[in-house]
Write a structure and sequence with these properties.
single chain, 184 residues, alpha/beta, five-stranded parallel beta sheet, 5 helices, binds ligand FNR
Length: 184
């Protein structure tokens, strides 16, 4: 079975640690599983006045969500919450009414911060929204990645073998979750 997983990075930073984390996950994907980024940088602010005629970037975003089997949100935490940039993308995904792109779409949330246990609250907020949208989201294991200098190598692999193993185990748990949801 092949699985196409899309990931969304919740950071606008050109040097995003969360994008490096997503790339590290991509490198850990087993045979038959592909990960690719779904960009949200072209989305403006969600506005319900546009529900009848979504702009092209929002239509493209929803088409990309439709084309993948599952979604991973890879997000920083801002001021103990989900970055507005990512919440805005979830709002675009949720509408127009009756065209919720995340309904029944298996998902997971992971995040990297410079602080220990960083992203826990951002992840919890993302899971609340995903649950409301009917997206079966991986609950455990959780992964709160504390990025220290050298955590990623120059090719965005996780440098420490034990940390890489833990990240690989998290991805494997998500793949099993997606397979269970597809079988259900
Ligand atoms: C942060 N950061 C942060 N980290 C955290 O764990 N909890 C928090 O509440 C916050 N708050 C916060 C607010 C703002 C405005 C910024 C810019 C940063 C740190 C942040 O999560 C993190 O270290 C980096 O942003 C890593 O993510 P990217 O942007 O490099 O992917």
């Amino acid at each position: 079975m092949t699985l196409n997983i899309g990931y969304i990075v919740g950071s606008t930073s050109a040097n995003s640690e969360n994008r490096r984390l997503a790339r590290a996950l991509t490198r850990l994907a087993p045979h038959g599983v592909s990960l690719r980024e779904i960009l949200i940088s072209e989305l403006g602010f969600y506005n319900r006045d546009l529900d009848g005629d979504y702009p092209a970037p929002a239509r493209a975003f929803k088409a990309e969500l439709a084309a993948v089997d599952a979604v991973i949100l890879v997000t920083p935490e801002y001021n103990r919450g989900l970055p507005g940039y990512l919440k805005n993308a979830l709002d675009w995904a949720s509408h127009p009414v009756g065209e919720n792109s995340l309904s029944h779409k298996p998902s997971a949330v992971i995040g990297a911060s410079v602080f220990p246990v960083g992203t826990a609250l951002a992840q919890a907020q993302a899971r609340t929204t995903l649950a409301f949208l009917g997206s079966p989201c991986l609950t455990v294991p959780e992964a709160h990645i504390q990025v220290t200098p050298g955590y990623f190598d120059a090719e965005d692999r996780v440098s420490d073998p034990r940390a890489a193993e833990r990240l690989g185990a998290w991805l494997a748990a998500f793949i099993r979750h997606v397979q269970r949801e597809r079988a259900a």
